[in-house]
Amino acid sequence: MEIRAAARFVRISPRKVRLIMDQIRGKKIENALNMLSFAPQRGAGILLKLINSAVANAEQNSEIDVDTLYIKRIYADAGPTLKRFRPRALGRATNIRKRSSHLTVILDEM
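The chain above was modelled as a monomer; its predicted structure follows.
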C-alpha cells in the first residue's frame, strides 16, 4: 500500500532539491532520514520534514509496518515563479526569477 505526502509552494528551486532527491530515491526510510539529517544543503531539511510527514501518515494506517517502508518515488515539480527586476548599468534592468517547487514523496512497503 502506497503512502503519499506533498509539500507545495516551497521556496526552493526544483533543480536544487532534485540533487538531494536523487541520493535518497529507493532507500529505506531509516537510511534516507540519516542521510538527510547530515546533509549540508537547505533542501535536505525540507525533505526531512516531508518524509517525516509521510511516515506519520503511514502510522495512521494500522496495517502498515513503518520499519519496512522505503522511498518508492520522490520528485519535484516546478511551482509558480516570482518575477523581480534588478537595476543594472545604463538604466537597464535584468530579470530575477525566484522559483518555487511542489515536492511529492511516495512510500511503499518492501
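DSSP finds three helices and five strands in the chain.
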